[in-house]
Amino acid sequence: MLSGGFDALLRLHGLKSGKALREFRGHDSFVDCCAFSASGAQVLSGSSDGSVKIWDARTAACLHSFRPPGSGELMDVGVHTIATVPGDDERIIVCGRAATAHMLTLDGKVAQAYASDNPSCCFAACALSPQGTWLYCAGDDHKLYCFSVAAGTLNHTLPVHERDIVGLAHHPHRNLLATYARDGTLKLWRSSKK
Fold first, then answer.
1. Which fold, 125-194?
2. Could you list the mean pLDDT of each consecutive 10-residue stretch along the chain, which spans 194 residues?
3. Which of 157, 153, 149, 152 minimizes the C-alpha distance to 128?
4. Residue ranges of the chain that CATH labels 2.130.10.10
5. Is 29 exposed, middle or buried (0-12, 13-18, 19+ CB in 10 A)?
6. What pLDDT, on the 0 to 100 scale, is given for residue 45?
7. Any idea which fold 1-115 has?
8. What's the pLDDT score for residue 192?
9. Contacting residues for 42 by C-beta, under 8 A, at least 6 apart
10. Could you tell me the pTM of the whole model?
11. Boundaries of CATH 2.40.10.480 in the chain?
12. Which of 51, 17, 21 is nearest to 34 (CA)?
């Protein structure tokens, strides 16, 4: 199991022992998101410092470090979501507090961009459908954005909350999305898309 912390460390834990087996050091701020690559050979992490790091899962060596597009020089855009693309060990979805999410290669090159139709909107959370067909992004304009992962096109927007959206999650086996907002509301949405 992976965990990221306020101490800027990423840790690999043993499920049976409950002990930290390995530490990944190199971020300058909170580790906000982490995941294993599709093959499990790499560990992926995103931080409030605006960086994405790709690590060797066995040695904890940092293989790549980059900033997603849209990270400014004056202000870092923290990375809140890293998602692996099912069946693809070379590309990941990365999203920070910006109007665009990206599909990136493991060395930081842009493979696809997913832009809001509202340039003043920033994405607060993202989730990928289990088959990797659809990317859902929750905007700070209280809307849910649905993108085709392959085409990069915005297919649908839906107003979902009256207050700031804090996060969203896609059910691993069903076409259900959960969105939750700062006012404490949790809403379930049925998606007709897989």
1. Thrombin, subunit H (2.40.10)
2. 93 92 94 92 93 95 90 64 90 92 94 91 92 93 94 93 90 90 91 60
3. 149
4. 1-115
5. middle
6. 96
7. Methylamine Dehydrogenase; Chain H (2.130.10)
8. 59
9. 36, 54, 55, 56, 57, 63, 106
10. 0.89
11. 125-194
12. 51
